[in-house]
Amino acid sequence: MAPGTVTDSKHWHAVHTRSRHEKLVDKLLAEQGVERFLPLRQVHSQWKDRKKWVENPLFPGYIFARICLDELMAVRSTRGVVRLLGPEPLRPSVVPEDEIENIRRLVTSRVPVDPYPYLKPGQTVCIKRGPLRDVEGTIVRKDRRCLIVVTVKLLGRSVAAQVSAEDVE
After folding, report:
1. Exposure of 136 by Cβ count < 10 A (0-12 exposed, 13-18 middle, 19+ buried)?
2. Helices (H), 62-108
3. Cα 94 from Cα 98, distance rounded (Å)
């Protein structure tokens, strides 16, 4: 089997969902007992008559599932699932555990996070203190702010969080 593909052990995979079906797919996979991760962020939405904080997916159209080969067909046939990302339908690519853990730490840290354009490999840094300690990513500057950008390579997507320059090594 090629590197980065599913085997008999459980690995994280990116599940492409129908538009605005991320929460439904998350619920349906939970009902099937599948370990999944839907990174959400707080967004201030405004309608004509009111304003409200809502949770939106950090990566619209995607959810992560930790599955083995036996669970592949059940996940693919779940309502709202388009496909699993990979070179072939029956060989989905593996999302590295450390990328999932870095995203999980960002969204649970209470540090404001925003989607960020995918960056090509650059200077990798590690946060040495604070709520994001040990998170690895790429450091960038934006409007006099220091941001750490964490990337999920398979999706071609990144997430940015503001950090203090002193916390980076």
Report:
1. middle
2. 72-76, 97-108
3. 11
Q: Report strand pairing: 35-37 vs 124-126.
A: unpaired
Q: Fill in the amino acid letter for 160.
A: A
Q: What is the DSSP letter of 99?
A: H
- Beta-bridge partner residues of 92: none
> Residue 112 burial by CB count (10 A; 0-12/13-18/19+): exposed, middle or buried?
exposed
Given strand 113-116, what is the order of strands in its sheet? Answer: 113-116, 157-162, 145-152, 136-142, 124-126
* Class of the CATH domain delimited by 11-84: alpha beta
Enumerate the β-bridge partners of residue 40. 57
pTM to 2 decimal places = 0.75
Q: How far apart are CA 8 and CA 142, in angstroms?
A: 43
**CA 15 vs CA 78, 110, 145, 153: distances in Å:** 11, 25, 33, 14
Question: What would the pLDDT profile of 49-93 be if each residue is shown by its tens digit?
Answer: 888 888 999 999 999 999 998 899 999 999 999 999 998 867 899
- Give residue 112's identity as a one-letter amino acid code: P
Strands 124-126, 136-142: parallel, antiparallel or unpaired by DSSP? antiparallel
